[in-house]
Amino acid sequence: MSDAALPLKTNDLATRRDDRRVRGESVAVQILLIGLSLAFLLLFLLLPLITVFVEAGARGWEAYKAAIFEPDAVAAIRLTLLVAAVAVPFNIVVGIAAAWAIAKFEFRGKNLLISLIDLPFSVSPVISGLVFVLLFGAQGYFGAWLKAHDVQIIFALPGLILATVFVTFPFVARELIPHMQSLGSADEEAALTLGASPWRTFFSITLPNVKWSLFYGVLLCNARAMGEFGAVAVVSGKIRGLTNTMPLHVEILYNEYMGAAAFAVASLLAGLALVTLALKTLLEWRFGDAIAASRRH
């Protein structure tokens, strides 16, 4: 280490001590807070996650593979991926449109639109699923019309998609709105003044400026879409092999005292969550400076 680096490190230590004195936090308080945080993470996050993988492999690889490749489990996995593949892109498009409208324009009903975007956060997923049943079920408001035109929504794929879209919609929009508001409209106005079309302005300026926030929103939306239980349970009918997603299949297996198979399928959901977390961490590690810069603007 060069002598020139020593004063810098000494100054850094002094700065940290000054910061602690300003905040009034002692070393003991910091250790206590860190210890409580680590204890919470260990007890409520890490131990349950470890338990899932331990129980999933308790009976060996052959039993695990049999549980995963069992026909009903394969159907549940395919259905979960299909629902997410439809719901997430839909929420990306609508979320971007809603965030763009709220952040860039002034119009009547703007506050109402913001409240509606937050609605899925305040309504129980079970209640939202029940609402779809009351609307599109056989005895619902549109049930007779749907039956006359041979259209089935409840207890079928469309109902699963509707329920998933509803509960996951806020994630993309809520990530984009504050970021777009902080950026303002100066760049877009300059581009339009120079002759760029609205669509070219959007794809060349607006979208690149919010790409990190958009990616975060997509990650959260996808994770919730694959793990949603309450709303999907109401509209699916829990028809084994037909309308069961992975979370519903786990519940059925567990209720039938097939614990090893339930944990095996649950380990796939946990693995998807870990992949999402790893992807987010890799993104922050690889492009941390760019993400931090975009958040500051």
Describe what you observe in this structure.
The protein is mainly α and 297 residues long. It is 81% helix and 0% strand. It has 2 domains: 1-56, no CATH class; 60-296, MetI-like (MetI-like fold), CATH 1.10.3720.10. It is globular, with a radius of gyration of 24 Å.
Distance between the termini: 36 Å
Per DSSP E runs of 2 or more residues, the count of β-strands stands at 0
Describe the sheet with the most strands. none
Structural class: mainly alpha
CATH class categorisation of the largest domain: Mainly Alpha
CATH topology of the largest domain: MetI-like fold
Helix content: over 70%
Concise summary:
This protein has helices at residues 5-23, 27-56, 61-68, 71-104, 110-122, 125-136, 143-148, 157-183, 186-193, 198-209, 211-227, 230-236, 246-255, 259-286, 288-296. With 297 residues, the chain is mainly alpha-helical.
Summarize the helices and strands and which ones pair or pack.
Elements: H1 5-23, H2 27-56, H3 61-68, H4 71-104, H5 110-122, H6 125-136, H7 143-148, H8 157-183, H9 186-193, H10 198-209, H11 211-227, H12 230-236, H13 246-255, H14 259-286, H15 288-296
Helix pairs in contact: 2-14, 3-14, 4-8, 4-11, 5-8, 6-8, 6-12, 8-11, 8-12, 9-10, 11-14, 13-14
Observed structural traits:
MetI-like_sf; 297 residues; mainly alpha; MetI-like fold; transmembrane; globular; 2 domains; sulfate transport
